[in-house]
Amino acid sequence: MKKSLLSIILITIVVSFGFTATSENRAINVYGQIGVGGITFGVTENTTVSTPANLLADTMNPDANGTYAAGEAPGIKIGSWSFSGTNQLAKTYTLTYTFSSLAYSGVNIPFQINEDGGTWLDTTDTTTYSAIAGTPAESRDIFARLTSVGRGVAESATAGTYTSTISVNLAAD
């Protein structure tokens, strides 16, 4: 019995050494990429030669004192701008609006614009837009109204289609 017990122990030791596991280290490489980001900026217009704004409409004109009623959202929507980006850092942009009076046949009618009910801007004014990091998206409507001087000119102006071009420039700060 001793011999068979000794034989079993020896066989177990030999078998154990024969099946000893080896340890190996392997690596998994991880590759990632962030694509080149970009921005898109677009401007649309709402008024056209065939659908001009009525310059004598109440929404375009201040009262005789050059003011608008409290709580009123004066002006008409003349267009909008939109901004979108991918893979962007947080950044502030300046929008510069450049325009001149509405003009027809030598008559000039001063007007102002604003974005979504903000501050009224004159012929060369700026606003800012602060884009968030990542995938920012923003759009703003642009409204126009006559100045008090513009109202006086419009009331005595001849019939015609008055035009002006608004240049919208987006620049990173």
Give the helix tally.
2
Strand order within the widest beta sheet: 1-2-8-6
User: Which structural class is indicated by helix and strand composition?
Assistant: alpha+beta
Number of strands: 9
From N to C, what is the helix and strand string?
Answer: HEEEEEEEEHE
Unreliable residue stretches: none
For the record, give the distance between the C-alpha atoms at the N and C termini, rounded to a whole number.
Answer: 93 Å
Beta-strand percent range = 35-45%
- Calculate Rg over CA atoms: 36 Å
Shape: rod-shaped
Mean pLDDT score, rounded? Answer: 82
Largest sheet: 4 strands, antiparallel
Give the helix level as a range of percent.
10-25%
How would the blueprint of this fold be written?
Blueprint: H1 2-18, E1 38-45, E2 76-86, E3 91-98, E4 102-104, E5 107-109, E6 111-115, E7 124-131, E8 137-146, H2 148-155, E9 167-172
Antiparallel strand pairs: 1-2, 2-8, 3-7, 3-9, 4-5, 6-8
